[in-house]
Amino acid sequence: MQHKLIFIVIFIGVAVSASFAQENKKLFTVHQAISTPDFGYLPTLVGRSKGLFVQEGIDLKLIVVSARVALPALLAKEVHFATAGSTLAVALRGSPLKAVFFSYKTSTFQFVVRPEITNAQDLKGKTISVTTPGSSLDTASRLMLKKLGLEPGRDVQLLPSGDSQTRILGMESGAIAGSALNPDAAAFLTTKGYRIIMNSAEVYPVPFSGMATHDDLLRDNPELVKRWLRAHVRAMIQIRKNPADAALVAAKELKINPELAVHATKLLLPAMSPDDPGGFSESGMRLNMEITGSRQGTDTSTIPISQVADLKLLREVQRELGIHCRDGYLCR
Question: Which strands make up the sheet holding 127-130, listed edge to edge?
């Protein structure tokens, strides 16, 4: 790589509390790259806060870095895990990367509009804010607009506007009529009278907020991957059992209002599978592959899911925890 990852990473918080200081000497350091600290990584945040990774012998280092950096870093094995959204396209072309875990069984974007917008037809002639063209948010926005009876580029204009804070500022200024946002940002705007008119799960039911790793790690150190997976699955179980406590963790980790964290957590719970924590359905992954492949001119109809994802270790972890998944990919 042209620049070593160590010069651009941003570490979030403290990996473990002082009560685990003695254990920390024996922990194996794992680097997990995420695109931005948000609710997409709620299981990771809860697992770290509750000491679940330490219990698995892992000193988890979260690294905030763009996909442009995370992808080559994962290929170079400079990080152990990186966001699956950035790896799917290259995995379809044969790169040795596999998705191994997903926080949510479907996408979780909330389509938020300004207070004066009361129905979809009010959006005609207005501007909708998205992120990078071809991104998952851009795809979800186009699908939601079509579901609402609006043709992107004809009935509404799409404006690439960067991160969620930039899009929120555009909406507050009146220049932007609406945008698909993550649940925490959506929850914030609803306190100001903005409306959520659609959830992307209705039109974009693909596995979401996933993490991928290198084939070499799966082959050479499957036990480490299992320990990392076990901490995440246990965190997901805790979130479903006590969402209020998970919201408090999110509020502290993400430095947001606790009431907003509670609202955002409630929006996310339906997307967390009680029967298949961390997994995905075959139809959901097939749709994800098809949409991603269409953007790069790749016919995915003959590409097996096993080329882009590997859930064997997740299934082992689930069984060891007494979870017998149903209807998911590779469930038995």
Answer: 157-160, 127-130, 178-181, 110-113, 195-199
- Among residues 100, 124, 122, 110, the alpha carbon closest in space to that of 231 is found at 100
**Tens digit of each residue's pLDDT (9 = 90 or more) over 69-86:** 999 999 999 999 999 988
- CA-CA distance, 3 to 254, in Å (whole number)? 28
pTM for the predicted model, two decimal places: 0.87
Q: Which two tokens stand for residue 317?
A: 């972890």
According to DSSP, the β-strands at 195-199 and 127-130 are: unpaired
| Residue 104 backbone dihedrals phi, psi, to 5 degrees | -130, 145
Q: Which domains does the chain have, with CATH numbers?
A: 5-106+206-320 (3.40.190.10), 110-202 (3.40.190.10)
Residue from 308, 257, 238 nearest 90 by CA: 308
Per-residue pLDDT band at 66 (split at 50, 70, 90): confident
Going by C-alpha positions, the residue among 207, 276, 266, 267 that lies closest to residue 237 is 276
Amino acid, single-letter form, for residue 238: Q
Tell me how crowded residue 77 is: count the other CB atoms within 10 A of its CB. Answer: 12
DSSP β-ladder status, 178-181 and 82-83: unpaired
- DSSP letter at 304 equals -
